[in-house]
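Issue: copy button drops trailing tokens. Both records pasted manually instead:
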Amino acid sequence: MFHKNKRIIATSFIIGITALLVTTPFSLEAKENKKTTKLEAYLKFTRVLNLIEEQYVDEVNTTTLINKALKGLLSNLDAHSAFLDAKAFKDLNIQTKGEFGGLGIVVGMKNGALTVIAPIDDTPAARAGIKAGDIILKINDKSTLGMTIDEAVSLMRGKPKTKITLTLVRKGESKPIVVTIVRDIIKIQSVKHKYVYLDKDKKEKALYIQISSFDAKVVDSVKKILKENPDAKGIIFDLRNDPGGLLSQATGLLDLFIEKGILVSQKGRNKRENLVYRATKAGTYKDIPITVLVNGGSASASEIVSGALQDHRRAVIVGEKTFGKGSVQIVVPIGNGEAVKLTVARYYLPSGRTIQNKGVDPDIVVYPGEATKKNQSALEIKEAELKQHLKAELEKIEKEKKKKAPKKEEKKSSKEDEKLKKKIIKEEDLYKDAQLKSAYDILKALILQKEQKEK
């Protein structure tokens, strides 16, 4: 009884304050009306809370009710804001360290549906054939309709070697796809690189740099690759299925290739969230030709990088339209191991355009698949190339003879040679990936254009 009486007294006290505010002088009316409206809203919330506690069919404590209210409040602001209870906050901290038990997919909300932004390379999800753009309809037996991103992530994470079943809706498929995946420890190697030769003699090469996520190592890794390959004629950046990451790494990467001007800006309601990131001249690779691969799985930081390079006309963007995630979140601890993740600003590219819900349109649209390769006969080859072609054919015949001849003992290739072979993108590899082949061909054209200007 005492507990109820105390609540009634508190409510009466608030009502008393409200009554006093209504009778304030006319000169303060506008200001006081705002306070009154705010207090009325608080009162409404308190009345509903009291009603649930006293009359709901099951007994629910105040803490549980407040947590549920906060989850609903934050999730209704936008898809990326959330109330993080102690478990969710702990999971978020584990994720940012780059190693956790799960599937290896990044998800977001698109048109109200839980959508795969990107599967992470060499993870259970990627091996199971999960694709960017897949809509997750069910996680095990639970429908994702009305589910928040954080709730979905929490369900998909779990102990390594345990199974999970996802029901997916995929564009072009008439029926939902059911996929069972075994969870594993997710270790992310954010930057990988290979070489691709630009000429038949294999004297000139370009760098192929794949960035799977923008973690804290990206800029240092790319700097190291560039330092070790000063003779590289150009770069293909592969940002396909890169869900983003740290803004500092996106701007740091851009600063390596853009000499001056705005890299990205962010604007929010609060002035302290209005920031502009600018390029610095020192250490800029301002002349090296660049192409960038993107697709529907490229989001956030990868959209900032591709969009800024596009705006500065510093690279040619190849592939498909990006995801369209251009908002800024902060995570604010609120005590007891809990936190609030809140959207506080939006990103804007150097030209002033926003990424949010719009994405980045590539300069050259290329859909995934194999590139067509026409076989040339000797009659189709130009006269200037005919001798070289016939010489190559003779070499093939000689090689076949050597294969049939008794083999002499060959020296075993060193581990270094084997590593180098794995890092070379062969011609047949290019033709297996139409988007990569297009990026390669465009890069060759950019390199040729640069060399002609320098003459």
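Record 2 (pasted manually too):
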Amino acid sequence: MMMLGVVIHTALVFMPDAPWIYQDPQRSDLAGLMVLLIHVFRMPIFFVMAGFFGAMLQARKGAMVLGGNRFNRIVVPLVVGWFVLFPMLSWSISFGWTYAMLPEGERSIMLAFQKMGVGVDFKEAGPMHLWFLYYLLYYYIACSFLSWLLGRFARPVVDLFNKCLKHFIIGRLRLLRLPLLVIASFLLMIPMKDPGVDTPESWIPVPRILLVYAFYFWIGWITYRHREVIEQLKNWSWLRLLGGLLMLGLCLIMSITWYMLLEEAGVSQETRDWILAVAQLFNVTCVWLLVLGLTGVTERLLSRENPLIRYMVDASYWIYLMHLPLTLFIPALFRYWDIDGTLKMLIMMVLVTVPLIVTYHLFVRGSVIGVVLNGRRYPTWFGSHHGDS
């Protein structure tokens, strides 16, 4: 889910009529489809996973270890990363705009570097793509505190709640599991302005967004207590996954329909609202089918650790943190490379990813940065054995 950030932010550069901070002259219709599709499921699935593994860490190590772990892995990357990345993003935008505005006879990368502005204005600067770390802090603090508070002063109520919940998760009422998840998520999605969940752009939390992702996080959190459901989800997992993919196609159709209606005169607001409501219903149904289906399928296919997948999982956090400036800077370097927009977009995705993997391997994996991001220091070269937790 993290590495899809490279895909979605690079695609925005090539998306026709996208309200993005930098646009390449070559466009791709595929870019818009990719952005719409990935936006449906990426962050909801991420927050479900974050809740599950947060609850796992608290249950195994305690609230104090969870707090220390999440301080290192969320607060430190958020604070340090923001002060590093915001100037990098500002310079990438400045270079891209400067290079784009150079007269045709004077276009050169070196001249663009010479003329670009290097000042950084921190006034009214938003959280960028790091907003999800900011929101995670709220969820970890809330769930940890409530778990302690309820466990200490309302244990009978908690036990009763878990007994009732067990019937819906793995018991006789499990057929109601998906409908209840869909209904609850749909009600939270109604206030959104566009299909899917709106994207925060401010350090001030947006209540409607905070609540939606809080629900996904909470479901992941409480599922850890009933994690035997994961074994059960192997049954019919391929069918759920297929249903999720079909719903993903319907989400795409409804989202495109809604955006087209926005541009058409004479369409009533009531009609637009109905289309948006249906799109949101398809959206949450798709998300939960994918969550349940992907969980079961991956349990079937990945019962043993795969070194390559494990490596990319470890690298993904670094890749996500550092990718945004590169998704603007690297396409800007190739602005005047006149080839098909779709092909160019795919090449740019590769060119963004490769240096991030190389820098992770050489400078992060075996360093103190790797300890902060991954929780331990891994060998830089395969076959070597140094490291500490």
